[in-house]
Write a structure and sequence with these properties.
The complex is a heterodimer of chains A (159) and B (211). Chain A is an all-alpha fold and 159 residues long. Chain A has one domain (2-153). Chain A has four helices and no strands. Chain B is elongated, with a radius of gyration of 27 Å. Classes of the chains: A mainly alpha (159), B mainly beta (211). The A-B interface holds A 36-38, 41-42, 44-45, 48-49, 54, 57-58, 61, 64-65, 68, 71-72, 117-118, 121-122, 124-126, 128-130, 132-134, 136-138, 141 and B 1, 3, 7, 11, 14-16, 18-19, 22-23, 25-26, 29-30, 79-80, 82, 114-118, 178, 180, 183.
């Protein structure tokens, strides 16, 4: 009975963990194509909040600024340049989609990394507490031993 | 090392106490402390210092006389931001942005500069401008065409100023930031429930000849 309860608890814990880790991926898959600029900004913000490294984030920001430059080019086009306009639009949409995918991948990788880091830090606290307790126990046993030794060495002097 | 049940009873409170203390330390280490984000918007003169904003230190600007400023924005919001610096042309009667009610200036928009900037990064925009064309109708002067960073802009609904006396116009630089909740730019930025703003203005006196 106890064993089956433990198995069920373990299975639930693993499922929650898997859902937690894959939730950004599921969210990104639910969104349509091409992603809007707002959605890409939100996904990059999520990657940053998850703890993306400065170089990872810097790359995404550079790519977003490239899209920005393309948007500027698009705005400066005249209405006669329809071919160029559709080509630029395609390029913008492809870039946004690529950035969105990259941001989501970084979020997943970073979430794993942050989760592992947190696990290590919190586990270290448990190990630290155990070591503190052992050290305290060892010191007190040493002190008791020393006291006993000293007591044995005492001489009884009649007054 | 042997543990009797008595020593376990004695050590358990010590273990739990140190566990609570160390887990609290771990929580503090892993949880980023909240901070109030802000932007710094400032402008520098032609030499990249807080001086020499006008040629010959005179605010009287003749047509085709280039003026160089460096408008800079520092992001201290704690996260990357999508920003928009909107440059408007105003006169003495058009209202500047209102910090109290967080509203932009109604002055006509000339140009805007958009960029994504990382946290703790500073973005510097070289702003080299000159008046290409203006008209005088009656007693009023109107700037019709400006060149900014080698691009020419025709000014729609350009503000006017009196020809006789002091004709003062101003560039207004407003900071707008991307608001993901509405999917558009907002004036300034939100800090909790408050809307904060950052803007600059530079006065100048368009003139036909030396004052």
């Amino acid at each position: 009975m106890t064993k089956s309860v433990a198995t069920i608890t373990f299975a639930i814990a693993i499922s929650v963990l898997v859902l937690f880790i894959t939730s950004p991926l599921l969210a990104s898959q639910a969104a349509g194509y091409p992603p809007t600029l707002n959605k890409v900004v939100q996904d990059v913000q999520r990657a940053e909040a998850a703890g993306a490294r400065p170089e990872e984030l810097g790359k995404l920001i550079n790519e977003l600024n490239s899209v920005n430059a393309l948007e500027d080019q698009l705005q400066n086009l005249s209405s006669q340049e329809a071919d160029k306009r559709s080509q630029l639009l395609r390029e913008i949409n492809n870039s946004l989609a690529a950035i969105d995918i990259e941001a989501n991948q970084i979020t997943i990788a970073t979430s794993h990394r942050t989760f592992t880091d947190h696990m290590i830090i919190y586990s270290s606290a448990v190990v630290g507490a155990a070591l503190t307790t052992l050290a305290s126990h060892y010191l007190s046993s040493l002190r008791r031993k020393y006291r006993g030794k000293r007591a044995l060495q005492l001489k009884i002097v009649p007054k | 090392m042997k543990f009797s049940s008595r020593s376990i009873q004695r050590l358990l409170p010590l273990f739990l106490t140190s566990l609570i203390i160390l887990e609290a330390v771990a929580y503090v280490v892993t949880t980023p402390s909240p901070r109030e984000g802000f932007f710094e918007l400032y402008a520098l003169g032609a030499n990249g210092t807080a001086s020499d904003y006008y040629p010959n230190n005179s605010t009287f600007i003749q047509p085709t006389q280039p003026v160089t400023w460096y408008v800079a924005l520092s992001n201290q919001m704690g996260s990357f931001q999508y920003v928009d610096i909107r440059v408007k042309l105003g006169n003495q009667t058009i209202n500047p942005p209102n910090d109290t009610i967080a509203s932009p200036s109604p002055a006509p928009l000339i140009v805007e500069f958009k960029r994504f900037i990382s946290d703790n990064a500073t973005w510097e925009i070289p702003f080299v401008w000159q008046i290409l064309n203006f008209s005088t109708q009656g007693n009023h002067l109107r700037v019709l065409q400006l060149q900014i960073d080698n691009v020419s802009y025709l000014i729609q609904n350009a503000p006017t100023c009196p020809v006789h006396g002091s004709c003062s116009l101003r560039f207004i630089f407003e900071l707008w930031t991307w608001d993901v909740s509405v999917g558009d730019f907002q004036i300034g930025w939100r800090n909790g429930n408050r809307q904060r703003m950052a803007w600059l203005q530079f006065w100048f006196n368009p003139t036909l000849g030396a004052p």
